[in-house]
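A.,

Following up on our hallway conversation. Structure tokens first:
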């Protein structure tokens, strides 16, 4: 298969600084429905436009990882997968495979440091975009992924990422399976550090363990509205519904989004079915929607504004991949079960579309 990676370019530096700080504000979360469907999703933000398409990658697809020394790890896809690619680089950076395993990359600036590619590790090395496709291609469960990482079966080489600005981009990764189990994988000092993720939430920097510790600052948050209290004989009542969440951080920084995502996912009432759970996850992620202009930087005289380009939801029980875009808020769905997963080519659909407004004036009676 032609992976169309000639535009990647190679760079042999350790990943510590990344040029333009066009920060990404992606947020991920997970819920489980009453019928045991595991539903997870994420937002996709960046400070410059990312050209994205949705693809279905069949079983038997051959891949070659890219490294700073040339070709790296080679593999043939054991499982079919569906998800998002960037430009013409036909490896999925956010997706789900036919066994319900989900993996996705999230921006991790200031902390990610990939391994240095050498002749000794070149055969197990690949780019930061290749590794998500490798997970989807080869594994059924989170435990299988953990075992492969513990056995040092893969290393990330600091090559350029197609579709992003021309600096080595820093990522960490989340993996879910259809049981709801989750891990976060972070490239630290050239090694891949693995954290168990009991809450299924991920944002960006700093490290995952820091975010989990930070949750201790918000143990007072409650889903229900607190009762009135007596203060020196006076009755003090909440000002309205939602007072239990008073103090919930509302800004767009990664720590604040992590706390909000954890609070919303934990306090949501489980829906009865997977379909309802998908809509519930979209509602949760709507709370992290960033309009153009409210989160921005000015660099070299140019404005870079993070905004929510895509929102993605994955139904790991029914193998359905949903998305909507900034320009088109209507929800679209790809059903893996409707494809020949032993097909001979990668099928593709660009995410670009325009919102249609439904005029219901004539329906009034």
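Then the amino acids I'd put at each of the 365 positions:
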């Amino acid at each position: 298969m032609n992976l169309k990676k000639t535009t990647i370019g190679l760079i042999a530096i350790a990943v510590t600084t990344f040029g333009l700080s066009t920060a990404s504000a992606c947020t991920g979360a997970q819920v489980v429905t009453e019928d045991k469907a595991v539903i997870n999703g994420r937002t996709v933000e960046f400070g410059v436009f990312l050209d994205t398409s949705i693809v279905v990658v069949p079983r038997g697809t051959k891949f070659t990882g890219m490294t700073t020394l040339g070709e790296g790890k080679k593999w043939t896809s054991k499982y079919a997968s569906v998800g998002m690619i960037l430009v013409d680089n036909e490896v999925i950076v956010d997706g789900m495979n036919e066994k319900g395993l989900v993996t996705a990359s999230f921006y991790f600036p200031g902390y990610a440091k990939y391994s240095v590619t050498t002749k000794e590790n070149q055969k197990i090395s690949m780019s930061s975009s290749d590794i998500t496709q490798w997970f989807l291609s080869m594994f059924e469960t989170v435990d299988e992924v953990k075992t492969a990482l513990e056995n040092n079966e893969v290393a990330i080489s600091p090559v350029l990422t197609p579709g992003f600005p021309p600096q080595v981009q820093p990522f960490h990764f989340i993996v879910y399976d259809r049981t709801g189990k989750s891990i976060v994988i972070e490239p630290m000092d050239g090694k891949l550090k693995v954290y168990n993720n009991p809450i299924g939430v991920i944002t960006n920097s700093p490290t995952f363990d820091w975010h989990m510790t930070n949750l201790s600052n918000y143990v007072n948050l409650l889903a229900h509205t607190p009762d009135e209290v007596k203060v020196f004989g006076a009755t003090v009542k909440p000002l309205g519904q939602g007072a239990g969440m008073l103090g919930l951080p509302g800004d767009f920084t990664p720590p604040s989004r992590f706390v909000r995502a954890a609070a919303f996912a934990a306090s949501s009432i489980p829906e009865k079915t997977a379909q309802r759970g998908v809509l519930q996850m979209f509602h949760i992620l709507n709370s992290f929607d960033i309009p153009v202009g409210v989160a921005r930087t000015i660099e070299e005289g140019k404005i870079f504004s993070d905004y929510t380009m895509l929102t993605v939801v994955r139904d790991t029980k029914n193998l359905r991949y949903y998305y909507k875009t900034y320009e088109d808020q209507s929800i679209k769905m790809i059903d893996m079960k409707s494809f020949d997963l032993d097909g001979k080519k990668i099928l593709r659909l660009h995410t670009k579309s325009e919102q249609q407004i439904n005029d219901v004036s004539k329906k009034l009676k």
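Helices lie at 130-138, 142-150, 208-214, 254-267, 274-286. Curious whether your intuition agrees with the design.

B.
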